[in-house]
Amino acid sequence: MIYGSSGGVGLYAVQLAKSMGANVTGVCSTRNLELAKQMGCDYVIDYKKEDFTKTQTKFDAIIGVNGCNSMKDYKRLLKPNGIFVGVGGDVKQVSKAFLLSFISRNFSYFAGPIMPQNDYLSYAKELAETGKLLPYIDKIYSVQDTKEAIRYIVSSHTQGKVVVSMDFK
Question: Which residues contact 114 (CB under 8 A, 6 or more apart)?
């Protein structure tokens, strides 16, 4: 399961999971359902209409983007040997998840940039060249409009990535 399956991190996570043969359940809002399906989700839960924490399905792996939900909810949805990976979130969420990652081998949390390994970059390149890893760009802003781009990212649930073009004039 990927919570935040239509955002900048989630869309890549969906595609990477599919490239490895996973059956992917995405969780996103109503306006993003079709995009999540288009990018590879086998099943999509609309969190505006359905409480994904009430699903009876147990997952081998869960990626939780932006720290929107409690660790307790995610833990309940994992199979006994399942793994949770959190990405981002507020200080409280990251602190709890970071602590859990020391207590339980089933929880990992990434709060900052991770340096990719060389073999990963080759793998990502191969997936991109074969059309299995595609970027989805929500909006493109000029470098002069960086402030507006940041406002958009902060105030909206972006779909995919927001790009700032370095078109110096």
Answer: none
User: Which backbone phi and psi does 139 adopt, to 5 degrees?
Assistant: -145, 155
- Choice between 106 and 165, residue whose per-residue pLDDT is larger: 165
Distance CA 111, CA 102 (A): 15
Query: Tell me: the pLDDT tens digits for 81-111?
Result: 888 888 876 666 666 666 666 556 666 655 5
What residues pair up with 2 in beta bridges, in sequence order? 26, 63
Chain centre to alpha carbon of residue 24: 12
**Residue 52: CB partners within 8 Å, gap ≥ 6?**
1, 3, 27, 45
- Range 120-139 average pLDDT: 88
